[in-house]
UniProtKB/TrEMBL annotation:
InterPro entries: Galactose-bd-like_sf (IPR008979), Glyco_hyd_98_carb-bd (IPR013222), NPCBM_sf (IPR038637). It comes from Cohnella ginsengisoli. It holds the Pfam family NPCBM. Residues 4-54 form the Glycosyl hydrolase family 98 putative carbohydrate-binding module domain. This is NPCBM/NEW2 domain-containing protein.
Length: 74
């Protein structure tokens, strides 16, 4: 996110073949890392979408979100 320890939140959605597999909501800048595990068995198309709860009411104008240390295991 743009600002560490921000009050702004985002939701990470993990989408497989147009179906939501997992959503991690209310993630804020400065939060501790949140480990996630998503079963991708049989999934052909995988996306990670970051959504703002209210894009019209952003305190800082923009938000940034990042994922770190992503791994795919077979």
């Amino acid at each position: 996110m743009k600002q560490k320890n921000s009050n702004e939140t985002v939701t990470f959605k993990f989408i497989g073949d147009d179906n939501e597999l997992l959503a991690v909501a209310d993630v804020k800048g400065g939060n501790n890392p949140i480990p996630v595990s998503v079963d991708l068995t049989g999934v052909l198309k995988f996306r990670i979408v970051v959504e703002k709860p209210d894009p019209e009411n952003i305190i800082y104008g923009e938000l940034y979100a990042s994922l770190a240390d992503g791994k795919l295991f077979q």
